[in-house]
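ok so for the tutorial part 2 we go from a plain amino acid sequence to predicted structure tokens. step 1 is just haveing the sequence, like this:
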Amino acid sequence: MSSTKTKITFHGGVGSVTGANFLLEGPQYKALVDCGMFQGTHEAEAKNMETFPYDVTAIDFLFITHAHMDHIGRIPLLMKSGFKGVIYSTPETKSISELMLADAERIMEFNSRKTGKTPIYGAQDVHNAFVHWQTIPYHMPKKLTDSLEVILKDAGHILGSSMYEFTCTDESGTKKVLFTGDLGNSPSLLLPDTEFVTNVDYIIIDSVYGDRNHESKEHREEKFKDAILRAIKRKGTLIIPAFSLERTQTIIYQINNWVEEGIIPQVPVFIDSPLAISLTDIYERVNALYNDDVQTDIAGGDKIFNFPKLKETVQSMDSKHIHTVADPKIIIAGSGMSTAGRVLHHEERYLPDSNATVLLMGYQAPGTLGRELQEGNKEVYIHDKKIPVHATIETIDGYSAHKDSDHLLEFVEKANTGNLKKVFVVMGEPKSSLFFSQRCHDELGVTAIAPEPKSVYEI
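step 2 — the prediction. this is what the tokens look like for a chain of 459 residues:
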């Protein structure tokens, strides 16, 4: 039997952007929200291998907000450690997670053969996760125990992303607790706007951009279009390090629109990521979860992720041949922060080229190659080789899939309908979380806390 009082323990996703892992406990249940990998720092690998700081066998439920690796990446390790409960998410998050986790396991196995290090989990652990995985559609209440009920709302972050609104009952009464996951940067090119939520008592909210704002939608699109046109005019290669999930699909949809409208000329565009190609197949099978504009395009017969001269390079040999294609050309390759994947090979080749451009489209975590390029380093190391940087480095923040500071504040303001008791600010660098906590206090009169790792709060 769990505690008779409801409490939250912040095991991950505090003091950093990654590693989301929150424990919600009350009468009759222990529930985790997200089980993500730590990423972007030298300590991440060691942290990902650590034993979970709670009794895994006692966990009843695991709720997954969305399928980014910093929210799902340690689920197979949870299975390996003895988890026997039920995993819940939207159907789309489950489908995407199957691809993401299988890909992660293959990379670990490959690296293990090279380095001799034992992977933190294997293919069987990935398989076992989906034996336990069930789905809940948006807006359908589900009673889990006599003291716990949940309903999912659309977070607008990536396909299938959700907020979890828990109704928790204990000896002090009933309270509503909202875990936002990552809130989307609305308006999105592809997805409906983030739903606003009211009448909650506690919010656990992300703060990746808690201390800064994005460019406007119009400004970000103008900057992207201009970057493409400049690269074409220079007859150079444009490299876009892009997350395989959501970012790649957004970029392709945007370029598709501009090609169809004649705004940019037709040049070779490569999706150089097997994972991004597989995920795009899922996106192509979905209609109902897109915003009205996209649904109108699809209904009109537009193949929104396809246009002339777009080429998918699944095989590594095809990837290696991209450089033989005459410039100008565009290469969209993972990973989004240049920490791994095929983009490293392209950056190794093209960073010394003064006609080339690397376009960083979103947050670059400290310690990543993307952050080094963003900060203007003139030499970087790729595959243990020193690479001079002569290419043009450009950044567009507006394509981030995360809400910025003003829109996070708007979300909290609309949720503050009189009974909001406390906001826990997580999933951000410390300066970002602390800044946003202060904004909530100063501008909304709301009690807000940036929790410390492993801190426990009764609610």
